[in-house]
Amino acid sequence: MKKQQLEKITPRDKNFSQWYTDVVLNAKLVEYGPVKGTIIFRPYGYAIWENIQKILDLEFKKIGVENVYFPLLIPESLFNKEKSHIEGFAPEMATVTQVGDKILEEKLFIRPTSEVLMANFFEKEVKSYRDLPLLYNQWNNVMRWEKTTRPFLRTSEFLWQEGHTIHNNQEEAKKLTLKILEIYSNFANDVLMIPVINGQKTEHEKFAGAQETYTIESLMHDGQALQAGTSHYFGNNFSKVYDIKFQNNEGKWEYAYSTSWGVSTRLIGAIIMSHSDDSGLVLPSKVSPIQVQIINVQNTDQIQDVSTKLQQELDQYRINIDQSDKSFGFKISEAEIKGIPVRIEVGPRDLENGQVTISRRDTKEKILVKLDQVKTTVEAMIKAYDQNIYQIALDNREQRTSHAETIEEYQKILDTNQGLVLVPFCGEIACEEDVKKKTSTNSRCIPFGVEQTKGKCFNCQKDSTLRVYFARAY
Amino acid sequence: MKKQQLEKITPRDKNFSQWYTDVVLNAKLVEYGPVKGTIIFRPYGYAIWENIQKILDLEFKKIGVENVYFPLLIPESLFNKEKSHIEGFAPEMATVTQVGDKILEEKLFIRPTSEVLMANFFEKEVKSYRDLPLLYNQWNNVMRWEKTTRPFLRTSEFLWQEGHTIHNNQEEAKKLTLKILEIYSNFANDVLMIPVINGQKTEHEKFAGAQETYTIESLMHDGQALQAGTSHYFGNNFSKVYDIKFQNNEGKWEYAYSTSWGVSTRLIGAIIMSHSDDSGLVLPSKVSPIQVQIINVQNTDQIQDVSTKLQQELDQYRINIDQSDKSFGFKISEAEIKGIPVRIEVGPRDLENGQVTISRRDTKEKILVKLDQVKTTVEAMIKAYDQNIYQIALDNREQRTSHAETIEEYQKILDTNQGLVLVPFCGEIACEEDVKKKTSTNSRCIPFGVEQTKGKCFNCQKDSTLRVYFARAY
């Protein structure tokens, strides 16, 4: 019978990159698309994204953000107004030059992000301070051409949300930028169970056109960092270029202040590389498409009755009975590969004692539980499960966090215990460029809550005032 | 103060097309985008689409449909395999030819629809009859270049859902095609309150590559028809071209059977042209972003207390208190333009008698209601409101439905009482082409539940076995 045999997954410690690909494909999250750099989200992969969307969307709406949809295509002339923005994106932009056989008069770019379209709209829309703020968000596809493909991490087309807000004063815009960072950070820590460090990007790493970029940074199991979400404060950079002015309450014209912020399907990559293991995915319960999987050892009426009752009793969860005609062993493997947090096995021998077997995906611990204890057991288990996978990721990060005072020390750490390295840093673009050339790594963030002591830059030895995390990153 | 004055809406009977544009722009549903043919969905317009999505998505999931996301771009070589499909879309396809400065080796089309991408995936995925059916859907953007722009009705980029399913037998595929039509039809009738006619498309009007196309057809207030949703049965057309085969339970290889189906943001156009009036939008309650709008006549503590309590009491609805500093009259106009079904005005004089004023958007009827009767009144009013707007649309359709036996009779009706015209029709492509040339109209559907009597074709006078609705259409 086809596909009853699951493919082998390369051990994580043997080849992390191959392990990642094996997990992604075997758990049927995605398939490669026909155009290089594109992926197809299969149902199981897309369902994770839908859960992410639902939870985040609610958080955005709570603070007054409204969803919109702006067009896919940006005229070349409009895009080219903002120079630092173009420089950042130009080489990656897919360009529409014709429709049918007809060559277009102006080239159209597939959006790599939508600041420019939003700015163009705001310019027409905003007249008075009373019109502000506007807090917009969209869930959409964007395109940034990539030479290599890694599902979720590096794809030419990806899905994300991009928030764009515009304000009549600087303080409110800055506050919003940081409020979003807080939403992202809470979401990563409490929903995805990925511990993140909140901080600010250096000049070298900040977003094209932004005054300040804030980030949540996570550390993957292999010690490489991953930027999990960013929030940008533009000041009035975009407003000046796109002429977005409002009349203040004294009737004078001022430039408006804007922000943008986004998380993408990269988060699914971060989930995988934070939590999963040699048996496949380990999904945080809050975004797992299936939270509890019931598997019947045999298909007798009695067993089916019990599992149906359990399904009803546990209907607060996304719960599923595997009704397929696959073998019992196959079903177990599949539930493991898919990273389903809790599995209930209903079998004839256990039922004789009024029991079922419940097991956790993370620790693989199995326990026999009386039928009337299933609900409380599952509830407790899911909580413990989420806490445990968070703790494992946190322990990994802590073991892999170190500090260095010189570039030599830093390079040594990269070779021995790859992870986050806190260094004194001058903050200059040229110096960071130099570090990048020497080590193929860059700064991750100037972390919040870490004392910014004076010292000598770890690379150029100039006076430094910053303490910055550097790391190899995805 | 800016925008306290709402723009005038052209009367519907004076100039339907201008009325439509005025309503769409004044209700702040959309704005035009910088690329011709594109629109920006503002928050209020997008919120209607989100409500449509939520309700339909649930219906799809109930029958086992799973959401996926396939790439935006289709390689030219892949698209060109299916000839009838190409012919249908080639002149409308936006084409990516370069990335940055680099010319691509192969042209890439922005998807006008995704049959080809799905087929390409199914070809690799499907091996055994046990793998089937696969029931996929995606909510996404597609592009079909248009020369003219009419928000929601004719735009180069639009949002939709496209379902794609593949089956191991013909009967199941056909049944699914019709099940989807039923979901669409119930959704139009019961949620959007738009009466629709279910039927099959003629050979001339069926979808590029399909064996059979089914449709729900609606009639707008001005007597023009609008296709509100379609469901296509492909037989094994696509499977043969893209080589999608499965092994049946006897181990023999067979071609699979496929379907596709979609509704788009056109539905918002249909809502507007079915229900709205000279004061602006009239939205069906189930998709209205705000169902109940509370407006305080003054901002005293007592009034604010009452409206806050009412908001809590009516929290089963999407309910909103207009807290802006706009004038009372302006707030009333705005609630009308936005088509909010029910409005509650809380004022000092009414409150002296323990009352508030409740009014309906459709009939503009206003009644004084005791505070303890508000909840039951609103519940009954929303039901009556939805029934009434359905009935008005149905009456309009019935008054505009006629029949003709000859092309002359048909042409006369088009000039006098534009609407749906049932005619005897031969069903031949050439004949329909001829009707189209003569009248700029085409067939809408071969309706279900209408007796298909023999006769002479209204145009070519050949023997006919079909009774078909013809109409001018959007």
Keywords for this entry:
homodimer; 474 residues; BirA Bifunctional Protein, domain 2; Rossmann fold; Translation Initiation Factor IF3; eleven-stranded mixed sheet; 14 helices; aminoacyl-trna synthetase (chains A, B); Pro-tRNA-ligase_IIa_arc-type (chains A, B); Pro-tRNA_ligase_II_C (chains A, B); nucleotide-binding (chains A, B)
With strands numbered from the N-terminus, the spatial order across the biggest sheet of chain A is 3-7-8-14-11-10-9-22-25-21-20
Q: Which range best describes the helical content of chain A: under 10%, 10-25%, 25-40%, 40-55%, 55-70% or over 70%?
A: 25-40%
What is the CATH C-level name of the largest domain in chain A? Alpha Beta
Q: What is the SS-derived class of chain A? A: alpha+beta
Strand content of chain A: 25-35%
Number of domains of chain A: 3
Q: Tell me the distance between the termini of chain A.
A: 39 Å
Envelope shape of chain A: globular
Largest protein-protein interface: A-B, 59 and 59 residues
Whole-number radius of gyration of chain A?
25 Å
Tell how many strands the DSSP assignment of chain A holds.
25
Oligomer: homodimer
Low-confidence stretches of chain A: none
Helix count of chain A equals 14
CATH topology descriptor of the largest domain in chain A: BirA Bifunctional Protein, domain 2
CATH architecture of the largest domain in chain A: 2-Layer Sandwich
Q: What does the main sheet of chain A amount to?
A: 11 strands, mixed
Domain Aminoacyl-transfer RNA synthetases class-II family profile (chains A, B): 37-284
Subunit structure (chains A, B): Homodimer.
Keywords (chains A, B): Aminoacyl-tRNA synthetase, ATP-binding, Cytoplasm, Ligase, Nucleotide-binding, Protein biosynthesis
Function (chains A, B): Catalyzes the attachment of proline to tRNA(Pro) in a two-step reaction: proline is first activated by ATP to form Pro-AMP and then transferred to the acceptor end of tRNA(Pro).
